[in-house]
Amino acid sequence: MCSFHSSLLGLLVVLLANVSSAEDSAYYGYGKTATLNEISGWNIDVRPDGQGLPPGDGSVEDGEYLYEDKCAQCHGSFGEGNNQFPALAGGEGTLTDQRPHRTVGSYWPYTSTLWDYINRAMPYAQPESLSDTEVYAITAYVLFLNDLVDDDFVLSFENFSTIDLPNKSNFVPDSRPDTFNVRCMRGCKEPDSIQVVTSVERQPALVGNEQPTQLSAQLSAQLSVPAGEDIYRQACGLCHDNGVTGAPRPRDASDWRGRVGQGMPVLVRHAIEGFQGESGVMLPKGGFSYLSDQEVAAAVHYMVGENL
Question: Which residues span the domain enclosing 107?
Fold first, then answer.
């Protein structure tokens, strides 16, 4: 009997192994195996020890010119930040303050984070447009703005891992155990009833014995398109308030004179689909893909109306 059971168990193991092997090699009739070149186009992350860095170098001197041309309009000539765009320098000794000033020099743990972010996401309107040499140079200059390197410093593949940021030691592994939410089993919301909204109208204060309406009933009704000014302040003002990448400023007639002459349908289409002009770049929906076409159109009407 024991021998029979052993034989049966062995047969089941072989069958299960064959099924697993068949599933691993299954072909579902679409797609193709990614080539090494295709994978390398996405494999651009850089680790704290420098793994993933391309060969190359860049100097603080070259980085200063590049920074002024491509970065200073948003981040300030000295890394102090500009309106809604973050500061890159300063803030040393403020992390224990009630309102800490987090910058590359005061808060960030690794130089690799700086190089990687510049490489994949900057400049704001033209991400991944910089060469490796330019990324090295701008990274070196931001380090210089934080007094971490001298003005004659050249950042390179060889010395990259020797640059330690001051706050590195304050980043430690989280020893708390992972936790998981319990799945809702009864009285749960229907997924189709959940709506993502970009703004919610304020509700009037309750008077006397009035009872608040059910939130689910409020959200189930079709929400009106938020006012153009609301959308502008949530999304568009990030660039248009400062004229970043040639974005026309509201209430600046000289910026809008030629654009208004094209007609409102053209302006709305450019804002929704994106546009490359002579003096700037407009990303599709300004990079805020969650906005509806109606919301973008409302923001355009608001901006044009401010100049009439």
Answer: 57-170
Q: What's residue 266's pLDDT? A: 86
The Cα–Cα gap between 198 and 296 comes to 12
- Tokens at 211, concatenated: 């009872």
> In CATH, what number is assigned to the domain containing residue 143?
1.10.760.10
Residue 230: half-sphere exposure toward Cβ, Cα within 13 Å:
13
φ/ψ region of 96 (left if φ > 0, alpha if ψ in -120 to 50, else beta) reads: alpha
Confidence (pTM)? 0.57
Distance CA 182, CA 167 (A): 36
Count of domains forming the chain: 2
Q: What is the pLDDT of residue 102?
A: 92
Specify if 176 maps to a domain: no
Q: Do residues 151 and 75 share a domain?
A: yes
Any domain includes 28: no
Among 23-37, 45-59, 207-221, 225-239, where is mean pLDDT lowest? 207-221
Does residue 179 lie within any of the structural domains? no
In a domain, 7, yes or no: no
The pLDDT assigned to 196 comes to 63
Contact between 106 and 116 under an 8 Å Cβ cutoff? The reply is no
For the chain, how many residues are written? 308
Q: Which residues contact 306 (CB under 8 A, 6 or more apart)?
A: 250, 251
Nearest to 268 by CA among 299, 240, 247: 299
The amino acid at residue 54 is: P
